[in-house]
Amino acid sequence: MSLSDNMLRIGVPSKGRLSELATELLLQAGLSFRRQERALFARVSGLSADITFLRTDDIPTLCAEGAIDLGITGSDLVEEAQVDIDVRMKLGVGRCKLAVCVPLHGNIQSAADLAGRRVATSFPRTTQRYLEKHTGDSKSVHLVELNGSVEIMISLGVADAIVDLVETGSTLAANQLRILDIIGEYETVLIQSPKCRDQATADRIVRRLEGVVIARDYSLLEYNIPRSKLAVAESITPGFTSPTVNSLEDPNWCAVRAMVKRKEVITIMERLEQIGAIAILEFSINNCRLDQSPGG
Ligand code: AMP
């Protein structure tokens, strides 16, 4: 198949760590498409949109040029590309830091010590900006620009420090490196072109993705509580608008249902237990629409 001129185009990473995350998110948001093996395009069924599979680091530039209308990529790559696009939403995945890293037992103690040294990175523009701000003599720093495997450049003898993405820190530990400074924190984002060819479809896709991304942050808690403790329970689980409270057969008890932040579930369960709640159950939420869409 080929791309149609008037269909919205969504750029999705063709391979690499974001490829699977992006595909999974789109499918969960109800954008169904089938990618033939090695195909560069796929049509989204039931929506006026095509998907095009691209290199993650080309997505910001292709979006700015209007070749694609929406794109999924890393905010680190958006910053590095220095192009004119809108970040429509954060997708809640792929969180990482861009950090200046140096040997564990070396003599580089601060950014100022980078003057006159060699720094390897695949983020030359972001690194240059950092050096200009934090190193007295940024022109004396020799930047070694690479497309990958930056973490081994110190042991290869090509660099004295590196600027690279760090997620868990295990790559650093394996290479006997430590973080000297953090340049920025990044995550996977949905970007939009200023030349977007179909704003209504773009908004509809953003709304669908928001449903899934927000749902991933919340759980639904259900529990039974003595009516005398209901007010305290409601203050612990105020819910999104307010909790749903149902009567039980026993007039001294009621059942409460409320959304809670997923990362707070355990402590909230403990607090509910302390005030006498029983049968506390957690349910995951697959998708949601929490407030009125702009269209009503
Ligand atoms: P880690 O060992 O978990 O700290 O991961 C570090 C390695 O994964 C480095 O080689 C990074 O270039 C790469 N990396 C980490 N997070 C990301 C990300 N969000 N996007 C792309 N590459 C990443």
Describe the structure concisely.
The chain is an alpha/beta fold and 296 residues long. The protein has helices at residues 17-28, 59-64, 75-81, 124-134, 170-174, 199-217, 230-236, 265-274, and strands spanning 8-13, 41-43, 49-54, 70-74, 86-90, 96-103, 118-121, 142-145, 161-166, 177-186, 188-192, 218-226, 244-247, 253-261, 278-284. It has a 6-stranded mixed β-sheet.
Mean pLDDT: 95
CATH homology superfamily of the largest domain: Periplasmic binding protein-like II
Any idea what the radius of gyration is?
A: 24 Å
Order of helices and strands: EHEEHEHEEEHEEHEEHEHEEHE
- What is the correct CATH architecture of the largest domain? 3-Layer(aba) Sandwich
The description of the largest β-sheet is: 6 strands, mixed
Low-confidence stretches: none
CATH topology of the largest domain: D-Maltodextrin-Binding Protein, domain 2
Work out the number of β strands: 15
Biggest sheet strand order reads: 2-3-1-4-11-5
What does this 3D model show about the protein?
- The protein contains eight helices and 15 strands.
- The model has no long low-confidence stretch (mean pLDDT 95).
- The chain is flat, with a radius of gyration of 24 Å.
- With 296 residues, the chain is of the alpha/beta class.
- It folds into three domains: 8-92 and 188-214, Periplasmic binding protein-like II (D-Maltodextrin-Binding Protein, domain 2); 96-186, Periplasmic binding protein-like II (D-Maltodextrin-Binding Protein, domain 2, 3-Layer(aba) Sandwich); 218-284, Alpha-Beta Plaits, CATH 3.30.70.120.
- 33% of the residues are buried.
- It has a six-stranded mixed sheet with strand order 2-3-1-4-11-5. A five-stranded mixed sheet has the order 8-7-9-6-10.
- The protein binds adenosine monophosphate.
- The site of adenosine monophosphate (AMP) has 13 residues, from β9 and α5.
